[in-house]
Specification:
The structure is a single chain. It contains 27 helices and four strands. By secondary structure, the protein is an all-alpha fold. It has two domains: about 425 residues, Growth Hormone, Chain: A (Up-down Bundle); about 50 residues, no CATH class. A hairpin with a 2-residue loop joins strand 1 and strand 2.
């Protein structure tokens, strides 16, 4: 692919199935490899530890930021969360547009060393920048968390293209489907384990008080959770000592401006840009399972029946995966969401094998439709069993989309630009989460959050706010009725005499949060699947984009 309007140059690795070697792909190279070397498996191990540390924080961040009934949380609102997630996404996933080119230029190993060190600093800042009183005065907790997240996001922005660029150089068209399937499997192993760490971290202070000195779910317990992620990340600095850097094939003498121009000139290629825009819409829908569903589960899903079936477990284990809520003993939201990672671990290798001869773009369309159905099913009722069924269906779709995006961009990348193109693979997630975070902040903050709907119910359906005129703006509810979000459910129960479970069901039946929250995202998923289907048909005419 060239930077001008001239006929694109076709990557020989795509045309001839030749392997990609440090000297560049070509039909005269060695026989295509079907197996994987030690560098491939070391890179996957590094990825697993990074994901373990990352998801230890990510799966709990929605609760920590805004959940009204989380004792040690920040108790910010849905719009605050949306803004934090938008910037988190922008830095973490859009910055690789640039950092991918620099990873090719500087070398992957140097990039990884800097990235991992930066991520460790980010986790430490999340732990220490709370309730800070310094010589310049008090640091607002919103800004303390925001600063830590931005540093973490910057580190991740360099880590992704550095690691994925190294990985792409060790793969070829013959083993690409299985290679990226293994990579995605490893990502989800780290993610799955990480879903169970927060329950231990947030309650371990009661078991080891002389070491951790933190009550369950206190702000000190959250501090320990962030420190744990920094500790897990440090393991990768040791593993990097054993990594043999993989040549990128890119020029090592290009200046900063040359790298920036190459980055920008490739992404404005209309066909590549169209693919990125389509996948951005899909990722906007897809990420809601991880970023919005945790709050939705904590607010609405009745996981009591599942919790009662797990009482056979060891008490320590049981207490770490369940929590006492006003409605009774519930399974923690992160444990329920971990069903997604478990499904990927069990099925992604099989899905990669089944689809190894399927056209990459066709597999993506199938996966997009399945994931869209899963998101809609998961949020449709208050039943934990329906939720789990939706997550399983979503996961089946993810198996055909997550690995295939990387595989597609890796296959169409010109020689010496694997890191650059794998950096592009982060743009759909970045744009999707950026837009989706702001959208979900508005939608959930107005029509989905139980605490806000409890405030609305007090204002609209009871005499509690009699004589007080509410203007319909949810941001003025607290000032109008004199009840804050963290107090709203307790006040509703006190005023109406309903218990927590009954009050939750009344709010669900009155305001239908499931329709307002999930139908718009499902519509986005369907539109994007149709658009990619059209793109796939057109790509059959483009030799350099047909994969």
């Amino acid at each position: 692919m060239t930077t001008s309007a001239a006929k694109p140059v076709v990557d020989p690795a795509i045309r001839s199935n030749a392997p990609i070697s440090p000297g560049g792909p070509g039909p005269s190279g060695p026989t295509p490899r079907h197996t994987f070397g030690p560098t491939f498996f070391l890179l996957n191990t590094i990825e697993m530890w990074e994901r373990l540390a990352y998801y230890n924080v990510r799966v709990m961040a929605p609760i920590y930021i805004m959940q009204a009934d989380e004792a040690g949380g920040l108790h910010l609102n849905a719009m605050d969360k949306g803004t934090i997630y938008a910037w988190w996404s922008a830095i973490q996933s859009i910055l690789p547009i640039v950092t991918g080119g620099f990873a090719d230029r500087w070398g992957y190993k140097k990039t990884l060393i800097g990235a991992i060190t930066t991520m460790m600093i980010g986790y430490i800042l999340l732990a220490v920048l709370r309730d800070v009183h310094g010589p310049l005065g008090y640091l607002n907790n919103y800004w303390g968390f925001f600063i830590g997240i931005m540093v973490l996001a910057a580190g991740t922005a360099f880590f992704k293209p550095g690691l994925q660029g190294s990985l792409a150089q060790s793969l070829n068209k013959e083993n690409s489907s299985m290679g990226w399937g293994i990579f995605y499997w490893v990502v989800n192993v780290g993610s799955f384990v990480a879903h169970y760490l927060p329950g231990l971290m947030l309650t371990a202070g009661t078991m080891l008080p002389w070491i951790l000195r933190a009550e369950a779910h206190s702000k000190e317990a959250w501090r320990n959770l962030f420190f744990a992620s920094a500790f897990f990340t440090s393991f990768n600095l040791v593993l990097l000592c054993f990594l043999r850097d993989v040549p990128s094939g890119a020029s090592k003498t290009d200046g900063v401006l040359t790298v920036l121009w190459r980055t920008i000139s490739h992404i404005i290629e209309p066909r590549l840009l169209a693919f990125i825009i389509i996948m951005s819409g899909f990722w906007m829908m897809m990420y809601q399972l991880w970023d919005l569903q945790p709050n939705f589960i904590a607010d609405w899903v009745d996981s009591g029946p599942l919790a009662r079936r797990l009482t056979f477990l060891n008490k320590t284990v049981y207490d770490s995966i369940t929590e006492v809520k006003p409605q009774g003993r519930m399974v923690a939201q992160q444990v329920l969401v971990s069903a997604n990672s478990l499904c990927i671990i069990v099925g992604v290798m099989l899905a990669s094998w089944v689809s190894r001869h399927t056209r990459t773009l066709s597999a993506l369309v199938i996966g997009m439709l399945m994931a869209t159905c899963g998101v809609l099913i998961a949020g449709w009722t208050m039943s934990v069993w329906v939720l789990l069924g939706g997550i399983v269906f979503f996961s089946l779709g993810e198996m055909f989309t997550g690995p295939k995006i990387n595989a597609y961009l890796g296959l169409i990348a010109p020689p010496g630009k694997k890191g650059l193109y794998l950096g592009y693979s982060n743009i759909p997630a970045g744009l999707g989460v950026l837009i989706g975070a702001k959208l979900s902040g508005f939608v959930y903050g107005h029509y989905g959050e139980k605490a806000v709907l409890a405030q609305r119910y007090l204002a609209e359906k009871t005499p509690f706010a009699q004589g007080k005129e509410w203007n319909g703006d949810v941001t003025t509810l607290e000032a109008t009725i004199g009840v804050s979000r963290p107090q709203a459910m307790a006040k509703l129960q006190e005023f109406t005499g309903m218990d927590a479970a009954t009050a939750t069901k009344v709010l669900w039946d009155t305001y239908d949060p499931q329709y307002h929250v999930w139908i718009p995202y499902a519509c986005v998923g369907v539109v994007c699947a149709i658009a990619l289907g059209i793109y796939g048909q057109m790509a059959k005419k483009w030799a350099d984009m047909n994969a």
